[in-house]
Fold these 3 entries.
Entry 1:
Amino acid sequence: MPNPNHPCIVIPGIKGTGLENIYELPPATTWSTWEAGVVAPDFDSLALESNGEVDEAEIVVNRASQLLGVAYDSFVQSLRGRDVPVYVFPYDWRYSMVRSAKKLVNYVLALQKKNLKSLAPANWDRAFDFACHSMGGLVFRQFVAAWRSAMPGTPLPVNRVVFIATPHLGSVDAVESMIRGETVLFGGQKELRKLARTFPGVYELLPNPGLQNTVVNQNGVPLDIFDIHNWQSSVTPDPNDPGDFDVEQAHLTAARGVLNALPNVSMPEFGLAGRILVIYGIKPNSTLRTVTVDQQKDNWYDFDHAKMGDGDQVVPVESALLPGVPSMEVRGEDVSVFNLKSHVLSLHALLPSLDEVSSVTSRFFSGVTGAALLPIGTDPARFHP
């Protein structure tokens, strides 16, 4: 009988991978837990060229290093308790998920060549379980398209998938992060707002039309967020200041194309029916849902009076769900006041580190389904078949 356990790959969310500048000897840290939540980021080390394809500074060559421990250490260690290998996939979250997905294809191909002694060779079909947090879920979906393109006719190397707080329909927080920066998505670091405008990865988190009425004019008419004419004039290109960090139409257009082409992995053609689970966070009225734009005043975005909705402080509930896919909710009150991380991390960032999330993920990867996934004593209404 085939072993239900498969090796696992953890794909972190935006900001969840450390970066280091290998131009320096030894490499210098560009992004870590320290930069993510304590000190102001270094513009010269993080900014990308206007094409979004390479570091802007000539003495900076960044590469992904490790997953940030504050968010993922306990999650990875818990998954490794199943006594099967759990690999992590660090990636440079500033770039387009298309680039990250191609790297993931090569990573998987390399791992498939391993002789995993913890699994009987005859029982491993060279497939993996994938645990995807936040933006990592979008990277996984792009990976599915990239695998089909690079390996036509080769079976998709996927056993089971857990999406944890993935913004399948985007997040209004991504809009705010690029305009004023005072968002949970970037830990309230206002300094990151200009840098975010150079990151294709952030553009790919913008709310798409499936998440209706996210940006509207004063008459309540939805505006196309992928059209630069609907952005606040203070963040759009100024001919008198060409060197500033602005929202770029080229990045908006590219992001729209990427998002429109993302495969819906719950469709029968991918053969993953019954093997996908969504875990999402919910705090009532905690998450940006609709922001009104004053088109008579330079397209001013009124975030201070934005409509809030249910979500994990970053991703609205309806963006995290996938039609026809079972889901489990984690509520804000599930986080203990004694959890020190809860004082510096949003529910969105905190989810992978919660015992309930790692436990449910491990059970799902071991073949458990339905309400039996829930920890003992959990309200069965938390599970939505």
Entry 2:
Amino acid sequence: METTDEDREKHPDVDPLEHERRFLPSSAQADAFIRAVRSGPLLDADKAERPASTVWTTYLDTDDLRCFHSCDGPVARRLRIREYEVGDQRGPATPCYLELKQTMGTTRSKVRLCAPVATLARLIEGDGDVDRDFTEKDQSGIALRAIRQALSDGHFRPRVGTSYRRHCLAAGRGLRVTLDEDLTFNYPVTLGLPHSNQAALALGPPRVLEVKYAACLPDWLGRALDAVDEVPALSKFRLGMVAVQQAAAIAAATFRARHSYRSASIGFMSAALRAG
């Protein structure tokens, strides 16, 4: 939460939307909310009537899971690489976004750096020479300094991946409303194209509605949201990490069971041979 209003105003890599609320709408609630947005008093240019696109995200964390544990503290922190569907232009050199997001209740801050994933991987590994790849586009260095500081907490590596279909319902200077569907968690995941990791670990909620805004939420939008189920503590990152831990526990229990069965079988065979 270290960026200022002046930073957000002048710096393109500092997200100006200071607040975020999250909801898990039913199908009927989602349909009613979409109708409310379409009929609301937004400028036509802010009503983002465009096809849904796929979003791939790789979440990073330290060996002692500092980001994951921050979800239980006053300020939750996520460090992630995000890639958006761009026609048929996906590939190793496709620009991705390394994002540092911090939330405290409904208050949020987010900075991000845009570069090919190979450049971002070098930054994550501590290569100081990559800084010049950002300085021309990032004159004040707000995003680079914040992300460098976060990376100093430990060795970060990929922990879980997500993919979902995102519908952008509103996109203005002070408001962004998105509806995500088909949320899937992937593991194991490697740095690189998140969508190249094909092993689906678990499925998330069928719909996730996110409302991000600067200053105050418009009254008409607040009334529309009153009819939708709000889940303030919802975090895709946390859900994915819990799914990874549960899968690891199941795998360990299965291994122990197989090992016990094998040991018992060997013991039975040995006893039978001695008896014979």
Entry 3:
Amino acid sequence: MGTDALIPKMKKRASLPVFGLLVLGLLCWGLPPRMPVVALAVERAIQFRPGFNLFSPAQDVQVGRENAAQADKQLPILKDSAVDQYVNTLGRRLASYSPNNRNEYVWAFKVVNSRDINAFALPGGYVYVNRGAVEAAQDEAQLAGVIAHEEGHVVMRHGTHQASEKILAQAPLAILGGVLGESGSLMSQLAQYGLGFGVTSVFLHNSRSIEAQADQVGTYTLYQAGYDPRAMAQFFEIIQQKYPQQTMEFFSDHPNPEHRIERVDEEVPQLGPRKPWKTDSPEFESVKHRLLGLPAPPKARPQTRSSAPSGPVPSPSDRLTSYQGRGFALRYPDNWQVQENQDNVVLAPSGGVWQAQKGESVQAYGASISRYDLQNEDPSLGGATRQLIDSMRQSNPNLRVIRQQGAKVSGRDALSTLLENDSPIQGEKEQDNLVTVRVPSGLVALVFIAPASAYNSYKPAFEAMLGSFELR
């Protein structure tokens, strides 16, 4: 079962740690060279300031480079010199107008040979644009909007900001001694905090507030580069209407901020007087025509058991160790590993979680904990749980409820729902115990996962974890 697929991407509660003077000291921002006086005034008025960060800009580049090395292995990169040259020329020109641009950033752009409409940026200026996004853009201004939005994530340092928050939540005192070394692989240093690399890393999971800020930076960049600043929001609106199936991945990775078009429209007057906007170019039309004439991208291979790590998955240890999460604590088998991302916390044995062909995180053993804001106003625990299960079925059509009963978790009323689903292990079924608890801000969901044939052997560990779970 994919951890991203099982627990759908619902609206999450914003949670930003406050760290007093340390945060204030890290709210620093730089200016690109030769910035025009008018642009400088606009930038100061809008205040493009990156948030709390434990990383230096040079470490942004290092962590981006190590992530890019993994992403290049996981993705079908389109190797076409004409397309690469055009996208890199456009991307670097846009970057020269980005606020907070720094000399350290590499600004390297690659096209992914996929018809899915998507794009993403890694720290330090490594930007990936899917072939499908170029083909879906109606003109150069819209493609420029996509790239400028991704560059907004880079210059606002969103990836390492989120990683910093997770490190601070797990090891608040360790930062006083310097969590991140100045040399060696950051990948190995960050792995101990459950910060994975490649296309499923924390650096690519954005909140609505982060997306809104990237929209703001992208709009500013388009204006300064001479494009209609509304083109970015127009692209998002058009693809959502014309390509609903192809944009599922995009809006999964880029949660759609509320009132996106209206927010952009409100920002445009602050940027300066209207200009004779550039909308298209012969170079864009030539590259788009070239892409449409290329062979179809390779189809992703279906998920099979061979994608999982080889060897048996170890049984849960009888010895438990403690984990302190945001707003909760629990104990779990000491031979399990902890992984955190934007959406949830995953605890699993070695071999219990792996990456599918498209980079999706797949879990066959272990547990996950998530917290959600609810779409309906103050529903009952039963109603909130049904809402969650209905959302889970959208990506798990064979999910079915076996039984449901009341329970107590951390002294609160809870529901325990035993589910049956298809296992990511080929030919297997799995059992999932979904335990839900209402909290003032929404719903906490714990899911205990194992193949049906192994569930009873995992049940004592699951019960011990649930019995130790405390909401704070």
